[in-house]
């Protein structure tokens, strides 16, 4: 059973990573940015393009792929969301536009790379290392470490840097931000850059573990959103706890109820939270 | 000719789906992503009853309407405690759970294997089997559905709904039972989806859960939005355009290897462009989608 | 203002409808006017099962190219429509092809079984042969006299696999991991009933959801239940992921599976841990000169090695073209022709059709050895 626990931690941290990559964006723009799902896949495919098609070493390919994902996020913001914001469109307009973006970009990936599975793994498949009676692979260790670094990094960033503080101000009250002289468009652009970069990173980590397909981003993205809501969308620690709760519920639910009910379990938990504690774990009461 | 009739029947199904959603979302302002789930409940009720109990079409239809209404109440009453964006997510969650049940409760719904061989409807001795028959049935159902929508929206009841959309607090201050209005219209919207559900089931004669996914819900919403939310003719026009457009694209010659992806790209691109330039839809009022 | 908008909308609608109608009329003229043979195709080229659709399309296109290259053959074209892994879109696509009914006596369809089942009543009614080289659902067998397939149904493979496991391996208890879609559930149901009639027992069944890549919980459940033989009823990608993740958890049962896993993806993902997997499959005989010639040409044109689905689609297209020519497109004669085929010698091996339109084909027991797919000899 140690294995089940470890799986829970692993999946939970991966969901946290994805959830935290959407966090800066959703905090600031207040709608569910579906096209984020395609950025996750894009990160993986950028790294595939650079490392496999161009033959560059992983050390160069991965950072560059993360940068390219960040660029993709910014591009969406500039081309679509910013004009919509200027017009004060309703959230549903944003959601539909972002679904449109998702469809377009996901099909561009299929068109360029094909629908079959692509891999950036090197070396043969190996048995996992023995760790307190459970098995863990090197890439899973890297995922865990990265996720923890990102959580801590983001916490410090939001608390201590000027940009982080500006983001919190814009998230809390856009009007107030304008009064104190914060250029909210610039801050939102940074949020897209950081969020999309993290999404690219998550995509690459997922691809290193379980390979890539053009639609690989949608499901983790949805889980990220669920984690964010049950965690409370204003608190990083809350999101991590939410992701862990979600992951454990899914793992143990799959173990005792049957794996086909994983989706239903995740969304049932979401509903319970929405009904009885809509502000999430650590969210502020509204 | 059958091809054209087939397209018209599909348009009819989506007219009913998006019109019923329009009551809930366009007029009252509750954007529900669970609409395909109700549609599925209606379709499965008709299919299971006609296959297992061999009851006549009209009985099945009435039962489907009632069951959809019950589900609407079950979903609607608790969700109404949830506001705005979160309502969207709550409805989304119901949609996922409903799909999961349809797909995984294999002993009851046959799961992903689907239900083949659903018998064609028989209305008072009129055996509906040919394409023109189905078209006539579709037209009748559409007219009934649109009449109901028209009657509702042009009644005092409908005006209260629109007031709730514009300003819920104001409606409350007028002493209106806002929760009651919201629940009743939500249940009504769910009941209306039984019509297209029954039609789809008997027309295609085969159903499986893949027809009632989130994607389907999003498609219904897109029809309503692109046509024009909060207008009676909006969903009708939206259904005509969105069902017919991909069909027209069949005629555009493209190399096979890229045609499929290109069409999807075109479709997604159209959605983005529409949102950028004309978010109120083809016939909608501009203010419905403004803050 | 209001009136203007109304006029604009009416004009828009009229334009849309008239475009549709004129196009329809034009297409009809184009296809029939030149006296070509037209084969329709409703294939899932996008969506979650697009991979199979594209294999199928490539096979069919190559068959068409070869047909047209042979002197004396009437010129043929393939009208491909995308069904987008969606039943309704599939029916619309099929209807569109039927609108060219003068020219489309037969339609190649797949890989989504649901689409085949939804189109079947229409095909029977309008007397158009529906031919699938890829869909596996057992329901397709009884879906009507105009529905044919040259892929062995999943049920046939599972019955054979149950025999192999209980007779050759003397294994009485297995676990089953299936993809949670129509094909996967069909595998599971067929296997369970066949295996239980042989006195075996399926101890545990786990399902894999489409579009998921983390199956560690399912694998762990198998491991924890100490099951040492597991049947995989899923395509290569999912099967390989299961095997890989099992290996990472140090769980190495005896793996069994069927046709869909015979794909390079299996080796790419699972590496050496796929070795020893035993599966029942339609055989593509690499020593058969017909196949090696086909494989070479396929490789030259598309840049990857053809699998059994490409080969089936190639054979299916060729069979349909021959059937259309010999019957002059008359439906009843086409049925006669298809049923009269006795050991048709295709690139995917010898095949004939039974009363239900299912292919009668030799299934063989194969295994993975050193990263290649080989005929299985001894346990």
General description of the model:
The complex is a heterotrimer of chains A (286), B (291) and C (379). Chain A is mainly alpha-helical. Chain A is 75% helix and 2% strand. Chain A has helices spanning 2-29, 36-53, 58-86, 91-113, 138-160, 162-172, 174-179, 184-210, 218-231, 236-256, 262-276, and strands at 129-131, 134-136. Chain B has 291 residues and is mainly alpha-helical. Chain B has one domain. In chain C, the strands form three sheets. Chain C has a seven-stranded mixed sheet, with helices on both faces. Chain C has a five-stranded parallel sheet with strand order 2-1-3-4-5, with helices on both faces. Chain C has a three-stranded antiparallel sheet with strand order 11-12-13. Helix content of chain C is 48%, strand content 20%. Chain C is built from twelve helices and 15 strands. The chains are: A mainly alpha (286), B mainly alpha (291), C alpha/beta (379). Chains B and C meet through helix 1, helix 12 and helix 13 of B and helix 1, helix 2, strand 2, helix 3 and helix 4 of C.
Give a short overview.
The complex is a heterotrimer of chains A (286), B (291) and C (379). Chain A contains eleven helices and two strands.
Keyphrases for this structure?
heterotrimer, A: 286 residues, mainly alpha, 75% helix, B: 291 residues, 13 helices, 1% strand
Number of helices, counting only DSSP H or I runs of 4 residues or more of chain A: 11
> Topology as H/E string of chain C?
HEHEHEHEEHEHEHEHEHEHHHEEEEE
- Let me know the average pLDDT of chain A: 88
Characterize the quaternary organization of these chains.
heterotrimer
Cα shape of chain C? globular
Sheet having the most strands of chain A: 2 strands, antiparallel
Layout: helices, strands, pairs:
The complex is a heterotrimer of chains A (286), B (291) and C (379).
Chain A: H1 2-29, H2 36-53, H3 58-86, H4 91-113, E1 129-131, E2 134-136, H5 138-160, H6 162-172, H7 174-179, H8 184-210, H9 218-231, H10 236-256, H11 262-276
Antiparallel strand pairs in A: 1-2
Helix pairs in contact in A: 1-5, 1-6, 1-8, 1-9, 1-10, 2-3, 2-4, 2-8, 2-9, 3-4, 3-8, 5-6, 5-8, 6-8, 9-10, 9-11, 10-11
Chain B: H1 2-27, H2 35-53, H3 57-79, H4 84-104, H5 106-109, E1 122-123, E2 126-127, H6 131-153, H7 156-166, H8 168-173, H9 178-192, H10 194-204, H11 214-227, H12 233-249, H13 256-277
Antiparallel strand pairs in B: 1-2
Chain C: H1 2-33, E1 37-43, H2 50-69, E2 76-82, H3 87-98, E3 106-110, H4 113-126, E4 129-132, E5 147-149, H5 154-168, E6 173-179, H6 182-197, E7 201-208, H7 216-224, E8 229-233, H8 236-248, E9 254-258, H9 264-270, E10 278-282, H10 289-302, H11 308-327, H12 331-340, E11 344-346, E12 349-353, E13 359-360, E14 363-369, E15 372-375
Parallel strand pairs in C: 1-2, 1-3, 3-4, 4-5, 6-7, 6-8, 8-9, 9-10
Antiparallel strand pairs in C: 10-14, 11-12, 12-13, 14-15
Helix pairs in contact in C: 2-11, 3-4, 5-6, 8-9, 11-12
